[in-house]
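User: You have something folded?
Assistant:
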Amino acid sequence: MTPLRIVLADDHVVVREGLKALVNAHHTMCVVGEASDGEAACELSRTLKPDVLVMDLSMPRLNGAQATQRLSEECPSVKVLALTVHEDRGYLTHILQAGARGYVLKRAAADELIRAIRTVADGGIYIDPMIAGKIIQNPMLPHAAATRERAPLSVRETEVLRRIARGYSNKEIAAELGISVKTVETYKARLMDKQGLKSRADIVRFAIRRGWLDSECPSPVGCTGPVGPFPDTRPRKS
């Protein structure tokens, strides 16, 4: 099995050294590059094409959100995992809207970061449970009350929404469900209208509230388990 190729971006050398030692300790992944600012992180990612870019949010030149936005447009194959001290949901919303696939707090346990890297590399989305819980409990969360009264989703709409939340592209959803890309787009527009969702970040929050990002929840309906990482079962591209 080819090890996952990881690029680390943080403006603190001590942090990068610690992360590198942690990642390289696992035979399934290795650090192939390091950057000390957002601009360098983008340049390295374009050159090295890593599986995952683990990136701090607060960096010089380009911050994490700006670098993520640029990479989502110029190098979408590189999956961004935000690693940060910020526990405010505003940072989470901003980075998800920019295109990040994961959000982990720096105070998380070492195995939490490794789990997040693997989940993001496999095409899923990982939200640190410590911040996911705050999002769910926050009464000011956009659409939190409104979605309870909205029209229910059909089974197919739910299948599409769950995959969007996991980071699937419209093409990947179409291939997996055996429908056209245009049909996927129709389902997406319909479900977002039904639930009052305006962005990808809204979709992820919607999925979190329903426990759909829990690896113990294989069914698209009726899941109420705890928030946590979830694997993506799609085969990795060679």
User: Anything to note?
Assistant: The longest helix spans residues 181-195. The beta strands are 4-9, 29-35, 52-55, 79-84, 102-105, 126-127.
